[in-house]
Amino acid sequence: MVSILRLGVATGAVTIAVALAAQNGTAARVPQNDKSSVLSLNHYVKVMSTVPVMVGQAAQMYVRERALPETIRPGVNLADRVVLFVHGAGTPAEVAFDVAYQDYSWMAALAGGGFDTFSMDVSGYGRSTRPTPMNDPCNLSPAQQATFIPVLIGAPCAATYAQPVTTIASDWNDIGAVVDYLRALRHVDRVSLVGWSLGGPRTGGYAAAHADKIHKLVLLSPAYTRDAAPGPPAALPTGVAFNTQSRAEFDANWDRQLGCANQFDMGARESVWTAMLESDPVGATWGSGVRRAPQTATWGWNREVAGRLRMPLLVVSPAHDVQVPPARVRELYEDAGSPQKVLVDLGCSSHNALWERQHAALFAASREWLAEGTVSRARSGTVRLGYQ
User: Fold this and answer.
1) Distance (Å, rounded) from C-alpha 347 to C-alpha 30?
2) N or C, which end of the chain has less CB nearby within 10 Å?
3) For residues 30 and 5, is the Cβ–Cβ distance under 8 A?
4) Rounded Cα distance, 326 and 312, in Å
């Protein structure tokens, strides 16, 4: 397996690419004379897929690593310092958590504090294996077909695969493969998880079932339904296999969540969208360019499962989030069984808080939590940040 190592300053302004023909994707020794640099290393983790259309087939998960050279030099004890980021329903992890704009990379912010940070794309996203039904625009909803079909094939068409292409169980399987890979790679018993949006059920459900492998949990705008079905349906529902998002849809979804002046920097928005298209070279050719994401059938992230959480839990609820309303996030906080838990009420922010001006407060809170188990020195209760 071939990995790519980019060594540069933390802003990403300077990069040096080095191909590493490493069977397991581990880093080669790197120069130790530039303590301000943050490494970027790509890993590809093999997994036996449980995606319905790919059951039993080999797949690979794309994993990006960001760390200081001194953090991952041989002999360093990384116990409780390994962090894995898991994305939400639409945006691949490296786009979400490693924004190449100013200080907007959440991964680099934690890496600068001595954490070895990783992000992963589950099946159907970014550079991880995408199930083949995602290559057929006929498997989109009729409304989304109308945007592409006249251009691509000249007329609307019938779906060749008419059910969600991935499931929460296949996501948990992908996460498990990467967690075990990181535990072996860095010789640690446990890793911490950071999940955003649908990354809440993905990381939270996995953590509840594998508490012995998880150190701490950080959830930003986590999707949550108290009375969600406890297990999978007898058969997956009929529906679309995947979805797309255009630039206009991306902007409109963000703009409907603006609740204060100067909430975001246009440069950050441009950087995120550019990276979004780069992460999907096929979708980038459809119409004016879109990102594709699988439709995921979910279950098992409910009151009972949340009650099984025991690791320290930080939950962040942006004040102007309309995708996962603050009331829903508070329900998760109340239901979580973690003896040590904090809810951050983050002002002047939306579902996209990690890409907005309050990102620094979010990053600092997560860094303190992962290092000390506190936010503003509080180990439990609600902490308000970003209010004036």
Assistant:
1) 40
2) C
3) yes
4) 20
Where residue 154 falls (left for φ over 0; alpha for ψ -120 to 50; beta otherwise) is left
Q: How far apart are CA 19 and CA 104, in angstroms?
A: 26
Are the CB atoms for 155 and 105 separated by under 8 Å? Answer: no
Q: How far is the C-alpha of 164 from the C-alpha of 145, rounded, in Å?
A: 16
In this prediction, residue 149 has a pLDDT band, given cuts at 50, 70 and 90, of low
* In the predicted structure, residue 150 carries a pLDDT above the cut 90: no
- Token digits for 51? 């995606």
List, in order, residues 6 or more apart from 209 with CB less than 8 Å away.
Answer: 172
CA distance linking residue 312 with residue 309, whole number of Å:
8
Q: Are 56 and 75 in contact (CB under 8 A)?
A: no
**If you write DSSP's letter for every residue of 242-284 in order, what string do you get?**
EEEEEHHHHHHHHHTT--STT-S-HHHHHHHHHHHHHT-TTGG
Give residue-wise pLDDT tens across range 310-328.
Answer: 999 999 999 999 999 999 9
Going by C-alpha positions, the residue among 376, 381, 370 that lies closest to residue 312 is: 370
- pLDDT digits 0-9 by tens, 217-252: 999 999 999 999 999 999 999 999 999 999 999 999
Scored b (16 or more CB within 10 A) or e, 235-263 reads: eeeeebbbbbbbbebbeebbeebeebeeb
Strands 37-48 and 58-67: antiparallel
Can you give the pLDDT at residue 54? 97
pTM above 0.85, yes or no: yes
Tell me: the pLDDT tens digits for 40-51? 999 999 999 999
Q: Quick one: 87 exposed, middle or buried, by C-beta within 10 A (0-12, 13-18, 19+)?
A: buried
Helices (H), the chain: 93-97, 106-111, 142-152, 168-185, 199-209, 247-255, 266-278, 303-306, 326-335, 359-372
Q: How far apart are CA 251 and CA 286, in angstroms?
A: 18
DSSP 8-state symbol, 355:
G
For residue 79, what is the DSSP state?
T
Query: CA-to-CA distance for 154 and 176, rounded, in angstroms?
Result: 42
The residue among 48, 77, 73 whose CA lies nearest residue 60 is 48
